[in-house]
Structure formats: C-alpha cells, structure tokens
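Practice problem: predict the structure.
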Amino acid sequence: MEDTRRAVDVINDAELAFAMMLPSETRKAEYLAEEAAYFTNQCYKEARRVVMHDYALARWQFVDLGE
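Answer:
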C-alpha cells in the first residue's frame, strides 16, 4: 500500500520523478548546459571586445582624416 502511494506521488511530481529516473544523465545534462553557457558568454565577451576595438580604431581614423 505504501509503495503504491509513493509511486502515485512520484508520477504526479515531475521534479521528483526526473530526480529518480536518470540522476547521472541529469547531472551530465546540467554540466553540458553550464559548459555551453560559459562558452556562449566567452564568445559574447570576445565579440564585444573585437567590435569595440574596431569601433575605436575606425573612430580614431575618422577623426584623423577630419583634421
């Protein structure tokens, strides 16, 4: 009876069910998600750095041309 009640509780609670179903796969997926977020953030920072560098260089050249 207690096992049946626990099974029904697990079926009705998605978070608890996912924790019980595939814990190692869940950890792997979370790790991959964190890694993807890190690389996305690094790519954004690098792209922004390059764009700002190009902007500053173009601005300096334009000002120099104007003088």
